[in-house]
Amino acid sequence: MKFLFIVQGEGRGHFTQALAMEEMLLRNGHEVVEILVGKSNSRRLPGFFNRNVKAPVKRFISPNFLPTAENKRASIGRSALYNAMKVPEYLRSMYYIQKRIKQSGAEVIINFYELLTGLTYALFKPSAPYICIGHQYLFLHKDFEFPQKVCLNWLCCVFLRE
Three-state SS for 108? Predict the structure, then answer.
């Protein structure tokens, strides 16, 4: 089968998952035709990913979190305002994603928690099925004990679903 990966470019966990999945698929006789990675001005592809990935990599503009003034955590308010102003760019990225899905000949899309993939499927309805993988889904496990913070529970409901 032919697979296309779409990877959230923030953090290293999604890159690590994509590398592991690519290696497993190749070992089992499948093909990863292309890897699309969300980017922003503050993101660079990590060296370990560049050195180990086999499929061609293409980038597109994607939403990201902006840090607080102390640079210790994400600022939800600043991030929301910043990303709202970039909606036209994100729409162009969604068009690009759906175009790459069509042109790549991929039979299955694996989304490593990139927000624009889900929005692309909602807007353009590509015919290739997609699977979303993200370590954040650990939060949905019945044995996971969430910290007692209302905002975290709310965010989990917004960004994760079973």
Answer: strand
Question: 146, 152 in Cβ contact below 8 A?
Answer: yes
What would the two tokens of residue 158 be? Answer: 């917004």
Q: What's the pLDDT tens digit per position in 91-126?
A: 999 999 999 999 999 999 999 989 999 999 999 999
**Domain residue spans of the chain:** 2-137
Residue 53 contacts by C-beta under 8 Å, 6 or more apart in sequence?
Answer: 18, 19, 22, 35
Tokens of 152: 């975290």
* Phi–psi pair at 55, nearest 5 degrees: -75, 155
- Give the separation between CA 32 and CA 104, rounded to whole angstroms: 10
Tell me the pLDDT tens digit for each residue of 10-32: 878 889 999 999 999 999 999 99
Q: What are phi and psi of 134, to 5 degrees?
A: -160, 135
CATH number attached to the domain at 2-137:
3.40.50.2000
For residue 36, the cross-strand partners are: 6, 58
Specify the 3-state DSSP secondary structure of 34: strand
The pTM (predicted TM-score) of the whole model is: 0.82
